[in-house]
Design a protein that fits this description.
By secondary structure, this protein is of the alpha+beta class. The protein has helices spanning 38-49, 78-88, 109-126, 140-155, 174-187, and strands spanning 62-66, 72-77, 91-96, 103-107, 129-134, 159-165, 192-194, 200-201, 204-211. Among the domains are: 55-120, Ubiquitin-like (UB roll) (Roll); 127-216, Translation Initiation Factor IF3, CATH 3.30.110.
Length: 244
Amino acid sequence: MLEPSALNGEFSAETPPQYLMPSPYRPNSPRPNNNNNGGQNRGNFRKEDKGPKRNDRIRATEVRVISPKGEMMGIMPTQQALDLAREFGVDLIEIAASAVPPVCKLQEYGKYLYEEAKKHKHQKSASKVKEIKLRPRIDNHDLFIKVRRAENFLFHGHKVKLLLQYRYRELEHPEIGIATITKAIEALMHISTRDNEPKRSGRAIVVGLTPVQQNKRKLVHNEAPGEEDGEDDSAVDNDEGDAE
C-alpha cells in the first residue's frame, strides 16, 4: 500500500482514497458580505422619506411662502422661493402640501424639526377644548370667520365645542339655529369628526368636534396655520341673560 511521501508530505497520483483529504464545501453563490452598506442604504432611504419635502424635492411649480419671521410673502414660482432661501441662508420647507398652492416656510430644517417635535410633545399633554359661540341668525361673513377660527384650532389638535345660543324670541323658530350650526359643522368635516348630532337642549345647541389624525389634517378656509393656542369664545358674553 502506498503512503504519503516522507519527503514533502504530498500524495502521489496513486494514493488510495482513504489517504485523500476531502475538499471544503464552497457554495456556488458568494457568501453575503455583512460589512456592505445595503442595510444602511435602506435605513437612509426610510429616514430620507420622513419629514416634509424641502428645497429641490418640492415638485410644485409655485408656492405660498412664509418668511423666517412668520410673515406671509405671497405666492411665487418655486424657483424664486428657492433663491430666497439661499439668500436667507435657510431651507425652503413644505409645511402644508395639501394647500393650493402648497405653503412653504423659509427656515433651517434642523430648527424646524426641533420645533415640530417640541410642539407635538406639548400638544399631547396640552390639548384643549376650544369653544366657538354662534347665533341662529349670524350672517355669512361672521359665520365664515368663526369657521376659520375653529378650523385653525382643529388643525393644531384641539377639540372644538360649537355652542349655538338662542334668545327667547328666537326659540319660536328653532330650525334656523339647527340650519346654522349644521352649516358650520359641514364646513369643518374635512378636518374633524362630529361627536354628537346637533340637538337643542333648552336655549342652546352644543356639538363637539374632534380633529382627525394629524397626517390627514388640511386647511381649506385658512391660507396658512394661525396661532396655536389663540383665544376662543369661552370668555365672550353672548347675551345669555337677554330675554328678548
